[in-house]
Design a protein that fits this description.
Elements (H helix, E strand, L loop, with lengths): L1 E2 L15 E2 L2 E5 L4 E4 L1 H23 L1 H11 L4 H13 L3 E3 L11 E3 L2 E3 L10 H13 L6 H7 L7 H9 L10 H23 L5 H6 L7 H8 L14 H12 L15 H4 L15 E15 L5 E8 L4 E6 L1 H7 L8 E11 L2 E11 L4 E7 L1 H4 L2 H15 L9 E6 L4 E5 L9 H10 L3 E6 L4
Parallel strand pairs: 5-7, 10-12, 13-14
Antiparallel strand pairs: 1-4, 2-3, 3-4, 6-7, 8-9, 8-11, 9-10, 11-12, 13-16, 14-15
Length: 451
C-alpha cells in the first residue's frame, strides 16, 4: 500500500488516474491507495462486454458483422479481415446497390451490403440526394431514371462513374462498360431536362406525369424516357478489369477475388496466411499465394535496384521486400495485379514485420508433386521410410528446394490430402515424379491452376 502525503487544489485541470510505477491504483479510505483495483474493476467490465459481443455475434451475426465493418471502415486491414470472417461464417458481402444500399454497411436478405459511404468519390451530399430520391419514389429503373430524379449538382459525373465501376448499377444493367458509354449521353440529357424544369418549361410528358395515378400514368412516364440517347452496344469489361476497378473504388475485391479459386489448394502450399505473419519467428521459412497491389522500385546506396511490394491474400495485406540479388532474378514477374506464389522469410526491423522475398513464380506455372498412397502404404513404416528417403534425395540444396509435395491417402470412400512439410520440398518436380515412379510409387504433377 502507498499513502498519499499531500494534496493541493490547482484549479480546473485534466483528471488522470492516481498511479505508481507498474501499477494502476485508486484512493481508498484514510488516504491510502489500493493496488490492483484497476485490474479487478476493468476485468469485470471487459468480461461483460465480451459476453455481450459474443452473444450478439452468435445470435445476430449479420447485424453484428455489419456494425463491426462500419465501426472499422477506416482501417483497411481490419475490414479485410472481417470480410474474410464473414466468408468463413457463410455471410456474403455484396457490392453497393443503388436500390438497396444505405449510408453504411447494412444487413439485407441474409447478406451484408456495402454502404455508399465506402465508395470513393461519393460524398455526403450525393448520398443524401440518392436516399431522398429513393424514399420519395419507387426503385430506380434505369440509369436515365436515376439521373433524372437526382439533383445533379450534388451527384456529378465522377460520382456516377464510381457507382457504375463498383457495381452499384449491376442489378439494373450488368454491362458496366455499356453504362459508362451511355452515361456520356444520359448525363447531358438529364441536365437539359433539369434546366427545363427549373425554368418552368417542362415537357408534355412531365406535365401528364404530375396527375394522380391512372392506367395511362405509367405509359406517359415511359414515353418521357423514349428520347433518352443511347450509345452503340459494347461488350462488358473483362472480369479482371472489373475486379481491379472494384478494388480501386472500394478498397477491396467484393463481387469476387482473384485468389478465391485457389482457396481449397492454398492451405496445402502454406500452413499460414498473411494475417498470421506477426505470429511467426524470425527467419521462419514460408510461402504465400498473393496478389501484388503495388510495386515500388528503389535503389540501394550502391545503386543496385530492389523493390518494396504491397501484397495481399484472402485474409490481409502486408509489405514484402525484394533485395537486389533476388530482384535481378524475378523483376519481370513484379507487375501490379499479378498472382504469385512467393517464398521467403520473416524479418523484423524497427518493430515492423516484413516478408523478405527469396523467390517467386506465377501461380499459373506452379506444379505440385502428388504422391498417392493406399491405407496400407500409409500405415507401413518401411514404405514411408522409402518415400522419405527419395524425397530427401530430391531436396538437394534446402535453400533451393521449394516445390511442395502433397500426399493423397485414398480409401474406398474417402480421399485425404496431406502436405508433407518444408523438409520434403524438392528442387525439380519432374525429376522427383520420375524417381517416385521408378520406386513403384504412384506419383504425378498437378498444376496449381487447372486449365
Amino acid at each position: 500500500m502507498v499513502k498519499i502525503i499531500t494534496r493541493k487544489y490547482v484549479g480546473q485541470e485534466n483528471v488522470y488516474d492516481i498511479g505508481v510505477q507498474h501499477d494502476h491504483n485508486f484512493a481508498i479510505k484514510n488516504n491510502f491507495v489500493a493496488a490492483n483495483c484497476f485490474n479487478k474493476s476493468h476485468s469485470t467490465a471487459y468480461g461483460y462486454v465480451t459476453y455481450q459481443t459474443a452473444y450478439l455475434k452468435a445470435n445476430y451475426p449479420l447485424e453484428y458483422m455489419a456494425a463491426l465493418l462500419t465501426a472499422n471502415s477506416g482501417d483497411t486491414d481490419k475490414v479485410q479481415r472481417y470480410i474474410n470472417n464473414c466468408t468463413n461464417m457463410g455471410i456474403q458481402i455484396d457490392p453497393p446497390d443503388i436500390n438497396r444500399s444505405g449510408l453504411d454497411f447494412t444487413p439485407a436478405a441474409g447478406k451484408i451490403l456495402f454502404g455508399f459511404s465506402a465508395v470513393r468519390n461519393v460524398g455526403q451530399n450525393a448520398i443524401a440526394s440518392i436516399l431522398e430520391a429513393r424514399n420519395e419514389g419507387a426503385e430506380f429503373k434505369s440509369l436515365a431514371d436515376f439521373c433524372d430524379r437526382l439533383d445533379l449538382r450534388a451527384v456529378n459525373r465522377r460520382t456516377l462513374e464510381s457507382l457504375i465501376y463498383c457495381g452499384a448499377f449491376d442489378k439494373i444493367e450488368p454491362n458496366r462498360q455499356q453504362l459508362i458509354k451511355d452515361l456520356e449521353l444520359v448525363y447531358d440529357w438529364a441536365q437539359s431536362r433539369a434546366k427545363d424544369r427549373a425554368s418552368g418549361q417542362g415537357n408534355l410528358f412531365d406535365l401528364l406525369g404530375e396527375f394522380p395515378n391512372t392506367s395511362t400514368n405509367n405509359k406517359t412516364k415511359s414515353k418521357a424516357f423514349e428520347s433518352v440517347p443511347k450509345a452503340n452496344p459494347v461488350l462488358d469489361f473483362p472480369p479482371q478489369e472489373k475486379l481491379r476497378m472494384e478494388k480501386e473504388l472500394l478498397g477491396f475485391y467484393v463481387s469476387d477475388h482473384p485468389l478465391k479459386s485457389l482457396r481449397q489448394i492454398t492451405p496445402l502450399l502454406t500452413p499460414i496466411n498473411l494475417s498470421q505473419l506477426g505470429e511467426q519467428r524470425e527467419d521462419t521459412k514460408l510461402c504465400a499465394v498473393v496478389m501484388l497491389n503495388n510495386v515500388k522500385k528503389v535503389m540501394t546506396k550502391k545503386g543496385d535496384p530492389m523493390a518494396i511490394l504491397q501484397i495481399e491474400d484472402l485474409t490481409s495485406q502486408s509489405e514484402a521486400v525484394v533485395f537486389p540479388k533476388t530482384y535481378e532474378r524475378i523483376d519481370f514477374l513484379l507487375q501490379v495485379d499479378t498472382r504469385l506464389i512467393i517464398w521467403g522469410k520473416i524479418d523484423r526491423r524497427d518493430d515492423q514485420t516484413q516478408l523478405i522475398v527469396e523467390d517467386a513464380e506465377p501461380v499459373e506455372t506452379v506444379q505440385m508433386v502428388m504422391v498417392e498412397l493406399n491405407p496400407q502404404q500409409a500405415g507401413d513404416i518401411e514404405e514411408l521410410h522409402r518415400l522419405k528417403t527419395i524425397l530427401q534425395e530430391q531436396s538437394g540444396d534446402k535453400e533451393k528446394a521449394k516445390m511442395p509435395v502433397i500426399g493423397i491417402v485414398q480409401a474406398e470412400n474417402s480421399r485425404k490430402l496431406v502436405r508433407l512439410g518444408w523438409q520434403f520440398c524438392v528442387q525439380d518436380s519432374r525429376i522427383t515424379v520420375q524417381a517416385l515412379q521408378n520406386a513403384r510409387f504412384t506419383a504425378h504433377l498437378k498444376p496449381l491452376i487447372s486449365t
